[in-house]
Design goal:
heterodimer; A: 63 residues; alpha+beta; Alpha-Beta Plaits; two-stranded antiparallel ribbon; 2 helices; 22% strand; B: 406 residues; Cytochrome p450; three-stranded antiparallel sheet; 15 helices; 14 strands; 12% strand
Chain lengths: 63, 406
């Protein structure tokens, strides 16, 4: 599954990294850094949580 | 309105009647002492009337209670300006960047400060916060009871803020700082503001840069928009970081313990180290301790079908947005199984609470130190809920709880 993040709109809540740190890392200032644009099946549930809980709603999973 | 005559001032639970709901729904008053007890009913009622509803209190402003309307305003800070302060009516005397700034100053100040409050930047403070939490638990663990706001939450939060922001580790000075802040909460008087402002101004003015990477060094030696930070801005930055982090985090820790006393099954959830990954956000949504912050409209616009004009004041009610049934099913209940919980307890957009991850660290550490050592957290006999302070923060007056040692 592919993941897209509109990182220009990230405000540094850090919630994605709580749910799925294997895919969503944070930089020194706390903004999202995507570690991979492909989510393996075993991480899909966690990545879905990151998508649904991002307060800025800038994470899109699909494909 | 009736009072429980058995209790003293600090534990008196106000029991509002239906008339209070009617009155507050028609004349929403942020500082009404009955409001905290009927906040769900009143914000539901005003949202049903209109999610952008004018009230004649606090000088007149629009109360924004819909999730979509709050989110839309937060996403357009150029229309919903932070300049002129975020209280209603505006009583503060010092302009506090970055919370009271618009771009480009806002971005410049956040750039200067963000790294101290990111997860990575805060990690080095974790042992000190843990020690504060351990000391707090030690102080009451043999008593079987504690007043958790002032004996547990306050020493942890005040201690953490004094170290991370004010660089104080002298307990006497720390106590003094907390006393000054409490005066603001109790009176919101000009004198109380002058006292805390004077105290922090002395710290900032007398500060000699150390070469270490700290908040004080950053504002003493850093630049915004190619210039030095002014003396007034330095004071404002430190003031908002300190004030913004104290009552809020304290109230959240207290609020979670209140839920424990009301729902005994929560204790086991809080002993699972994973609870802060997701459950914490459900507490944050439900309690929304900063119930709202104001903005000033800069240009004629429309929100939720209502025409707003340049100069209008609006209250973005985060609590009400987080309880909007159009966004969250059964919004007044704790539900740890929500698939989507994009709450706005820390706001969204560029003004996202700069201390949100600092608050998370303190809450996580506080409960990691407390929960292995206590069980059967409960209200004293005859008590079923707590008393709230009036005001914008959803703040327990006190939280007397009993427990058994584990």
């Amino acid at each position: 599954m592919k993941v897209i993040v509109d990182s220009s709109k990230c405000q540094g809540h850090g919630r994605c990294a709580n749910y799925c740190p294997e895919i969503f890392d944070l930089d020194e200032e706390g903004y999202v850094v995507l570690l991979s644009d492909t989510v393996p099946p075993e991480l899909e549930a966690a990545a879905r949580q990151a998508e649904g809980n991002c307060p800025e709603q800038i994470i899109t999973l699909g494909g | 309105m009736s009072h429980n005559s058995e209790s003293d001032l600090f534990t008196t639970v106000v029991v509002p009647d239906a008339a209070a709901v009617d009155r507050l729904a028609d004349h929403f008053n942020l500082y009404d002492p009955e409001l905290p007890y009927v906040l769900d009913e009143v914000t539901d009622r005003t949202r049903d009337k209109c999610p952008v509803l004018h009230t004649d209190q606090q000088g007149g402003y629009y109360l924004i209670t819909g999730y979509n309307e709050v989110a839309a305003a937060l996403a357009t800070p150029e229309v919903y300006s932070s300049k002129g302060g975020k209280s209603l009516p505006p009583v503060q005397t010092v302009d506090m960047p970055p919370i009271d700034s618009d771009d480009p100053e806002h971005h410049a100040f956040r750039k200067l400060l963000n790294r101290f409050f990111s997860k990575a930047g805060l990690a080095k403070h974790e042992p000190a916060v843990r020690q504060l939490a351990k000391n707090a638990v030690d102080s009451f663990i043999d008593n079987g009871k504690a007043e958790f706001v002032h004996e547990f939450a306050e020493p942890i939060v005040a201690g953490a803020l004094c170290r991370v922001i004010l660089e104080l580790d002298d307990p006497a000075q720390e106590k003094h700082a907390v006393k000054l802040v409490n005066q603001i909460g109790a009176t919101n008087s000009a004198e109380a503001w002058a006292n805390i402002t004077g105290f922090i101004n002395d710290l900032v003015t007398n500060y000699k840069p150390t070469g270490r990477d700290t908040v004080f060094d950053a504002i003493a030696t850093g630049e915004v928009l190619g210039r030095d930070v002014t003396a007034e801005e330095k004071l404002g930055v430190v003031l908002v970081l300190f004030l913004g982090g104290l009552d809020t985090t304290k109230s959240m820790i207290g609020g979670i313990l209140r839920h424990c006393a009301q729902n005994p099954e929560l204790e086991d959830r809080l002993r699972d180290p994973r609870w802060t990954r997701s459950d914490l956000d459900e507490f944050l949504r439900l309690d929304s301790v900063v119930t709202g912050l104001a903005r000033t409209v800069t240009a004629d616009t429309e929100l939720g079908g209502v025409r707003l004009h340049a100069g209008d004041r609006v209250m973005l009610h985060y609590y009400a947005a987080n309880h909007d049934p159009a966004k969250f099913d059964h919004p007044h209940q704790l539900d740890f199984n929500r698939a989507r919980n994009p709450h706005v307890a820390f706001a969204t957009g560029a003004h996202r609470c700069i201390g949100s991850n600092f608050a998370r660290l303190q809450i996580k550490t506080a409960f990691e130190e407390l929960m292995p050592r206590v069980q059967n957290i409960r209200f004293p006999d005859g008590v079923t809920d707590i008393a709230w302070k009036p005001g914008v923060a959803r703040e327990p007056m006190s939280l007397e709880l009993l427990f058994d040692k584990r």
